[in-house]
Every structure is written in C-alpha cells, then in structure tokens.
Specification:
This protein is α/β, with parallel strands linked by helices. It has one domain (2-401): Peroxisomal Thiolase, Chain A, domain 1, CATH 3.40.47.10. It has 15 helices and 16 strands. The strands form 4 sheets. A 6-stranded mixed sheet has the order 9-16-15-10-11-13, with helices on both faces. The protein has a 5-stranded mixed sheet with strand order 1-8-6-4-5, with helices on both faces. Helix 1 packs across helix 15 (336-350) and helix 12 (270-284) crosses helix 13 (302-316). The longest helix is centred in the N-terminal third of the chain and has 17 residues, at 67-83. The protein is globular. It starts with a strand and ends with a strand. 58% of the residues are buried. Pfam families: ketoacyl-synt, Ketoacyl-synt_C. Residues 1-402 form the Ketosynthase family 3 (KS3) domain. InterPro entries: Beta-ketoacyl_synthase (IPR000794), Ketoacyl_synth_AS (IPR018201), Ketoacyl_synth_C (IPR014031), Ketoacyl_synth_N (IPR014030), PKS_Beta-ketoAc_synthase_dom (IPR020841), Thiolase-like (IPR016039).
Length: 403
C-alpha cells in the first residue's frame, strides 16, 4: 500500500502545487544560458527546482549532502510526514529504505575533480567530500537523516533508478523483509548529464529561446531530451500494518516488473519493452484491458518514442489513454520513475489525466495511440501502469490500483 508521498520538482515542491500544474498543463522548463555560453553545449534549457535550500536544515544534518541528496531529503520528509511515521517507528528495524539516482551528485563530483586536478594534489580536500557524490549518497544520507535501522538498498540504473527502488521496496514488503519501505529517486540538473545527451546529439537545442516549447515527446517536431531535476518519494506499507496505524492509503502498488533487453546499451528494443509491460501486468494479476491509463516514459528522442509507442500499442492497443510528464519537468533521470508514480497517483485521486504538453502533431512513425492532448481529461482511473526505460536496455513497469 502507498501510505505517503512527497515531491520536489520543476512544477512544484508539494502535492497540491504539482497537481494544479498537471491539471492546468503548466510546465517548468527554463533557460540555462551557462551551458551554451560556458561549456559550448547545444542545449540550453532544463527543468529546475527552486525553493529548496541547505539553510532550511541544521548544518549537521546536511554536511554530507550534495544537491541530489538535499532534494531527496525534501521529498522524503514530506512523504514520511504524509504517512504519519514517527521516530520510534522509523528506527525499529522493520522500516527500510530503497533510493536511487543516476550516479550521485554531478556538481560535487565536478567540484572535487576541479580541486584535485587544479594542483594535482589532495591537500585541503575535505574528508566528507566523497560522501556527497558517492553513488549511494541519497540512500545513505536519508538513512542517517531518518535513523533507519532496517534494510537500505541503493539503486543506480540511470532512468530506471527510481522505479527500481520502488520495485525493491515492493518486494521487501511483499516478502516480509520489512513492514514499511521509504522508496524513490532523485536527480540534480547539471551540465555533465546534460552533456551526455548533447554529445550524442540527443538533447533539445532548437527551442533554447522558447523553453516552454520543449521537450515534445511523440511530436513530429521534437528535437531531443531536456534534462530536469527533482525527487519523488513513496512510503510503501503492508495493508495490515497500515490499518493498525489508521494510516491513509493513497493506492495499492499491485505489481512490478523489471527486465533487460540484453541487446544494446543505448538502442531501445520495443520487444523488450513489451515483455516487461506484460510481466508487470502478470505480476499485478490484471489484463491490459483493465488498465485505464498508461504513464509513458516519453523521452522525446526519435528512437525512444517510436519504440515505446510501438510497444505500448502492442500491449494495450490504441484505446488506452497515454501521456508523459517529461513534457512538464524534463527528463529527471534517476528521479523520473518515482516522480511519475507520484504524478500518476495524484491524477488517480483527482480523476484526471494530464495532457502531453507540446504535442501538436504526432510523429507518423509513432504507433497510433490515444495520446491525451489539449486540456486535461476527466477520467476515472482505477488501474494505472507507469513505464520507464534506461540505458543498458533496462525496463521497468509499475501497476497501481485505486482502493
């Protein structure tokens, strides 16, 4: 059961603000002139989070945190409060944590390397600096922040980091290894991950002067990925445990699947996507016809959009509504699976589907689907599938049900 949710994102840092943005079609992409001016990058836009500052926390709590862990902390504090978890419960050994990011903090990695290579010396480097950018910085810092004594499982699989963390928590609760799991993913916007897509000619660059016009998933005029930042956190809990606490239950995480294409590191396989979606439905015990909405990965890359649309059509047909929130936030990489799960549950609770922003003309090479466009669509969403796909051919599918 999902008993807590928290976010920070380019479209808001609390559930109500985010829900309003999704319902009104309000995006959060902004110009980042430093990337083009200083680093000679083609892309100059990103989805940025504002209002989350280190000074909001005691220094001893954040001294080992880079920005990515700080974003994770904000979202997780909100989720823990939403779930009503107190300190005694958090530290009882039966509460665990699974949290992911692409590779820790890019900004702290840059700062560390610049300092070392400037003088070719480690003199003056703080002993705590590594803790800010290690790959499991989010999970480790959150565990200390909340006093977690149960299992702590970091995930690091690029764009499926957040959804695999949710899956790890789901399995831990389902198989009795924890009563409660705090799960999610976070990412910070930085020129290093943006540059990865830039040098692959997969980053958006045509709309630097009009950032509200990009990204454009599934659109014929799309021109690539827009990097975003943020964090999403869910609290997962056994039903009997939640009921004993009189906890509010947002939804049930009904099924989870993850698989690998095993073919190519960057070229997506639509057959692999199909297999993962089918495994997710099988784990959830539902038919494709029972799914009321598919939350797509939708990166706005040519190969990704075409493959995903084909796979979605193969599994769900042409009538199931489809949209992606990357058109609002940009691609938040390790955070996207968690953020999009929260977005899905907000839409489920408020009975609407957020439209695809910037989808004016569907690329004719994409499969025929019910792409939600224009205004938000009123809908009763009892079952939602949320899909994510990552470099390495890694696939995930999460299935949620209203209670």
């Amino acid at each position: 059961m999902v008993t807590g949710m928290g976010v920070c994102s380019p479209i808001g840092n609390d559930l109500e603000t985010v829900a309003r943005a999704l319902q009104s079609g309000q995006g959060g992409i902004a110009p980042v002139p430093e990337w083009t001016d200083r680093f000679a990058m083609n892309t100059g836009v990103a989805g940025l989070v504002s209002g989350i500052e280190r000074r909001s926390y005691p220094r001893r709590k954040v001294r080992t945190m880079g920005r990515v862990a700080l974003l994770a902390t904000h979202a997780s504090e909100a989720a823990v409060a939403d779930a009503g978890l107190d300190a005694s419960l958090l530290g009882n050994g039966r509460v665990g944590l699974a949290y992911g990011s692409t590779h820790g903090s890019s900004a702290e990695t840059e700062a560390y390397c610049r300092e070392v290579f400037r003088e070719d010396s480690l003199q003056g480097i703080a002993g705590s600096h590594f803790l800010k950018f290690m790959s499991h910085t989010c999970a480790a810092n959150l565990a200390e922040f909340f006093g977690i004594r149960g299992r702590v499982q970091p995930t690091c699989s690029a764009c499926t980091s957040g959804s695999q963390a949710i899956g790890a928590g789901y399995e831990a609760v389902r198989y009795g290894m924890a009563d409660v799991m705090i799960v999610g993913g976070a990412e910070e916007a930085h020129f290093i991950p943006a540059g990865v897509f830039d040098v692959m000619f997969a980053a958006s660059s045509k709309y630097n002067a009009t950032p509200e016009s990009t990204p454009r998933p599934f659109d014929a005029a799309r021109d690539g990925v827009v990097i975003g930042e943020g964090a999403g956190t869910l609290v997962l809990e056994r039903l009997d445990h939640a009921r004993r606490r009189n906890a509010t239950i947002h939804a049930e995480l009904l099924g989870y699947a993850t698989s690998c294409d095993g073919i190519h590191l960057t070229k997506p396989s639509w057959e692999g996507m199909v297999r993962c979606m089918q495994l997710g439905l099988r784990a959830a015990g539902v038919e494709a016809s029972e799914v009321d909405y598919v939350n797509a990965h939708g990166t706005a890359t040519e190969l990704g959009d075409i493959a995903e649309s084909r796979a979605t059509a193969e599994v769900f047909g042409a009538r199931t509504p489809v949209s992606t929130q990357k058109s609002y936030t940009g691609h938040t990489l390790g955070a996207c699976g968690a953020l999009e799960s929260v977005f899905s549950l907000l839409m489920m609770a408020r009975r609407f589907i957020a439209p695809n922003r910037n989808l004016k003309q569907v690329d004719p090479r994409c499969a025929m689907l019910d792409y939600v466009r224009g205004d938000a669509r009123t809908a009763n969403l009892d079952v939602i599938a949320s899909n994510n796909f990552a470099f390495g051919g890694i696939n995930t599918s999460l299935v949620f049900r209203r209670l």
